[in-house]
Amino acid sequence: MRTQVAIVGGGPAGLLLSHLLHRQGIASVVLESRDRRYVEHRQRAGMLEQGTTDVLRGSGVGERLDREGLVHHGLELRFGGTGHRIPLTGLTGRTVTVYAQTEIVKDLVARRLADGGDVRFEARVVEIDPAAAGVTYVQDGRTRTLECDYVAGCDGFHGVSRPAVPGLRTFVRDYPFAWLGVLADVPPSTDELIYANHDRGFALHSLRSSKVSRLYLQVAPDEDLAAWPDARIWSELAARFATGDGWELREGPITDRAITPMRSFVAEPMRHDRLFLAGDAAHIVPPTGAKGLNLAVSDVTMLAAAFTERYASGSEAPLDGYSASCLRRVWRAEHFSYWMTTLLHADPAADDFARRLQRSHLEYVVSSEAAATSFAENYVGLPAAP
Ligand code: FAD
Ligand code: DHB
């Protein structure tokens, strides 16, 4: 079988790329190793930059996002038992939207299938030939080949695309902590997100709807989930969010829990021959700045535009510029995610001097309009790279 673009991975990057290509009349096949239910229910990111919602809306998959997404104009940084609001919209003119990655994936799968798209679940890619542009995959126990003009490697951090690129340069930073993320059937205790710095560790209060809260706790990188029964999770969250003004954290049944390691990682370049890497296949950020999903969307938006130009005019110039254009935005997000992680987490190796520096930095961000604006413009997302 033959197609124009073979897409490895049916996460947000692969599905959105397939959808954007379809709108330009370019054929693609998405090969996804997991089943549809698994992909649609994997709990991950939730905070979308305005640039991301613009892409989803502009490409005709924003209907439910517009109905159910929660538009936010600010967030709270909480430390020393006191909350400080950062007025994101006041400082930047832009908003962010809470709409879960699971819902974006459901919307994209439904739309690809309604448009007659070729999305193959339980189809695991085992080999990619970047020179000949061919992909070998296993489905129903049989090994098959998909020939194509180009391959898009959208198969996440543990996929097979990145190892198919010879001579990659990689940049890595591991952190001495992880996040324990929970989903709970309880109305959020806040209207806006709370990022809390505490000597016991970082905590984040996010939400999914008026009835569902999403909460995260900094834990040790080798933490055992079994050591965290519900009561311990709630009491630890309450301790880290505690204020002097009587604010209370509502508790409810926990419906999902997982531990995510924290890592920064970039692979350069994001292209080899006819193989293009996009999203987590090429780069990882620690989740503190909520950049992972947004970067995946900006990569594939640029890649779709480059393929469109290639098929419309024959010019490969945008494809040739793809890696450098993406990497400018990637490194800005890498720096911001690293910076925000360092600003808010309790580093087990920090001495008193480092802790005083961290507090001074937090006080600067909430008291200087220049510092708050710098924080806010990175958080809401910088404009798309040229
Ligand atoms: P993925 O979503 O990883 O999709 C890749 C797809 O490729 C998967 O469906 C996988 O099954 C498939 N695949 C892999 N190998 C193969 C193969 N050989 N053949 C075929 N298919 C294959 N970001 C935030 O901003 N905030 C968060 O809170 C947050 N939490 C996260 C929690 C976890 C556990 C992880 C892993 C990531 C989290 N992220 C978060 C990051 C964000 O979810 C990712 O940046 C986003 O999912 C990237 O999308 P993607 O499509 O590039 O990769
Ligand atoms: C969410 C996750 C993040 O990493 C973040 O910074 C903000 C929100 C979320 O899952 O809602």
Characterize the structure shown.
With about 375 residues, the chain is an alpha+beta fold. It is about 35% helix and about 30% strand. The protein is built from eleven helices and 19 strands. Strands 1, 2, 8, 9, 10, 11, 17 and 18 form an eight-stranded mixed β-sheet that branches. Strands 6-5-13-14-15-12-16-19 form an eight-stranded mixed β-sheet. Strands 3-7-4 form a three-stranded antiparallel β-sheet. Bound molecules: flavin-adenine dinucleotide and 3,4-dihydroxybenzoic acid (DHB).
- Could you state the CATH homologous superfamily of the domain at 2-71 and 98-172 and 263-347? FAD/NAD(P)-binding domain
Oligomeric state of this protein = single chain
Count of distinct strands: 19
| Low-pLDDT stretches | none
Q: Remind me, CATH topology of the domain at 2-71 and 98-172 and 263-347?
A: FAD/NAD(P)-binding domain
Largest sheet: 8 strands, mixed
Attribute tags:
386 residues; alpha+beta; FAD/NAD(P)-binding domain; eight-stranded mixed sheet; 19 strands; binds flavin-adenine dinucleotide; binds 3,4-dihydroxybenzoic acid
Short synopsis of the structure:
By secondary structure, the chain is of the alpha+beta class. It has a domain at 2-71 and 98-172 and 263-347: 3-Layer(bba) Sandwich (FAD/NAD(P)-binding domain).
Task: Explain the layout of strands and helices.
Elements: E1 2-8, H1 12-23, E2 28-31, H2 36-41, E3 47-49, H3 50-58, H4 63-68, E4 70-72, E5 75-79, E6 82-86, H5 88-92, E7 96-98, H6 101-114, E8 118-120, E9 123-129, E10 134-139, E11 142-153, E12 169-184, E13 194-197, E14 203-207, E15 213-219, H7 230-241, E16 254-268, E17 271-272, E18 275-277, E19 283-284, H8 292-313, H9 317-344, H10 352-367, H11 369-380
Parallel strand pairs: 1-2, 1-11, 2-8, 5-13, 11-18
Antiparallel strand pairs: 3-7, 4-7, 5-6, 9-10, 10-11, 12-15, 12-16, 13-14, 14-15, 16-19, 17-18
The protein binds flavin-adenine dinucleotide and 3,4-dihydroxybenzoic acid (DHB).
